[in-house]
């Protein structure tokens, strides 16, 4: 089980990303627009840099929904390999059978 503080910190980052997503997208579009004057694009770049660091999407860490484990994460299922195996062994995931031979 992951530390509760790490899981809560990641939830806080997700909330911050969601709050600033539209503002970041508008600034990035303005920066990438080659038709705008360079001064205006530079001002937009300064505004983007002034936003909180945790508002960037790359700061989010994918964590297992069951255990909070940060590694061996399956995006499609939203959980780690260990949690997937445990739930598969008890038959909690339909269609998944732990192989044995």
Automatic annotation (TrEMBL):
Coiled coil: none
The keyword Transmembrane helix is annotated on this UniProt entry: no
Keywords assigned by UniProt, alphabetized: Ribonucleoprotein, Ribosomal protein, RNA-binding, rRNA-binding
GO biological process, one term: translation
Pfam families according to UniProt: Ribosomal_S14
HAMAP family linked to this entry: Ribosomal_uS14_1 (MF_00537)
Function: Binds 16S rRNA, required for the assembly of 30S particles and may also be responsible for determining the conformation of the 16S rRNA at the A site.
Name of the featured protein: Small ribosomal subunit protein uS14
């Amino acid at each position: 089980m992951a530390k509760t503080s790490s899981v809560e910190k990641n939830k806080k980052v997700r909330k911050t990303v969601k709050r600033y997503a539209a503002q970041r997208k508008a600034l990035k579009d303005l920066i990438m627009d080659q038709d705008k004057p360079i001064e205006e694009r530079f001002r937009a770049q300064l505004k983007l840099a002034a936003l909180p660091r945790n508002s960037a999407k790359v700061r989010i860490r994918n964590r297992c929904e069951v255990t909070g484990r940060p590694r061996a994460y399956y995006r499609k299922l939203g959980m780690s390999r260990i949690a997937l195996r445990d739930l598969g062994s008890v038959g909690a995931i339909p269609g998944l059978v732990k192989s044995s031979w």
